[in-house]
Amino acid sequence: MDWRYVFDHNPLFESLHDEPEFQEMRAEIAAEMAEQLKNVRRVEPDTHSVDQGDEARIITQAVEKEVTEN
Fold it and tell me: What is the rounded distance in angstroms from the CA atom of residue 43 to the CA atom of residue 46?
C-alpha cells in the first residue's frame, strides 16, 4: 500500500488531517521517502522513469537487496 494513501485517503485518518502534529509527521515521512527514492535512483539509475506509485516497491526491493547482500 502506498504511504500517501494511508495519510491522505484512508478514512481512519481523515479527522487528523488538520492537526499540526499529523501534518508534521506526514511532512517528515514525505521527506524521508523522497530521500530514500533519491538514494535508490543513485544506486540504480534505471529507476528514474518510475512513477510515484512505484516508489515504495522500488525502495522495498532495494532495501531487501541490500539486506540480503550484507
Answer: 9
pLDDT tens-digit profile of 2-49? Answer: 778 888 888 999 999 999 999 999 999 989 988 888 888 787 776 555
Query: Which residue carries 532495494 as its cell?
Result: 62
CA atoms within 13 A on the CB side of 48: 4
Single pTM value for the model: 0.58
- Look up cell 515521512; give the residue: 29
* DSSP string of 31-45, one letter each residue: HHHHHHHHHHHHH-G
What is the rounded distance in angstroms from the CA atom of residue 35 to the CA atom of residue 21?
21
